[in-house]
Specification:
four-stranded antiparallel beta sheet, alpha+beta, Alpha-Beta Plaits, binds adenosine-3',5'-cyclic-monophosphate, about 35% helix
C-alpha cells in the first residue's frame, strides 16, 4: 500500500468540481484516509512548490493557489502515487488525454484542477506539510475483498 498527497486546487473548488473529482478516486477503489479544506498561505505555497519558486511562472502559481480554498487529501492504494497521476493526466489540461480528470475538465497549464505528489519522497514531504499524524484515519474498507485479489 502506498499513500499520496492530493490537492483539489482553487479552480476545482470554485468550479464545483470537488464531488466529481473525489468520485473518480473513489470509483477507482482508492481509499481517502485524510481530508480537509484550507486556505494556502504564501509561505505554505513556497514550501509546497519549493522546486518551482525560481521559475518564471511561480508568481502566477502562488497567486492562483492562494486565491481560494483548496481541499487536501491523503489517498491510499496499491501504487497510489502513479495510479492517481494516471487519473489526473498530463500536467497541462491542453495536453491531458480525454478520460483523465484534467483531459475532461481543464484547458489550462496553470489551472489544472488537481495536484498529486510525483514520487515517494515528495509524497512523504507533502503529506507532512498538510497533515499531522493524528489527522490520518487508517481503516480497512469493507469493500476490500471485492476490489483486488488477496495476494495483490
Ligand atoms: P502541479 O502538478 O500542482 O505542479 C506545479 C504546478 O505549476 C502545476 O501543477 C501547474 O498548476 C503549474 N504549472 C506548471 N507549469 C506551468 C506553466 N508553464 N505555466 C503556468 N503554470 C504552470
Amino acid at each position: 500500500m502506498e499513500r499520496t498527497l492530493v490537492l483539489l486546487k482553487p479552480d476545482c473548488v470554485q468550479r464545483r468540481l470537488m464531488g466529481r473529482t473525489i468520485g473518480r478516486f473513489e470509483d477507482k477503489g482508492l481509499n481517502i484516509v485524510a481530508m480537509k479544506m484550507l486556505q494556502v498561505t504564501p509561505e505554505l505555497a513556497r514550501q509546497h512548490y519549493a522546486e518551482h519558486v525560481e521559475k518564471p511562472f511561480y508568481p502566477g502559481l502562488e497567486e492562483f493557489i492562494t486565491g481560494a480554498p483548496v481541499v487536501a487529501m491523503i489517498i491510499e492504494g496499491l501504487d497510489a502515487i502513479q495510479v492517481v497521476r494516471n487519473l489526473l493526466g498530463a500536467t497541462s489540461g491542453l495536453k491531458a488525454e480525454p478520460g483523465t480528470i484534467r483531459g475532461d475538465f481543464s484547458g489550462s497549464q496553470q489551472m489544472n484542477l488537481v495536484h498529486a505528489s510525483d514520487g515517494p519522497e515528495s509524497a512523504q514531504r507533502e503529506q507532512e506539510l498538510y497533515f499531522s499524524a493524528g489527522e490520518i484515519c487508517s481503516y480497512e474498507p469493507t469493500l476490500s475483498a471485492w476490489l483486488k485479489a488477496a495476494d495483490e
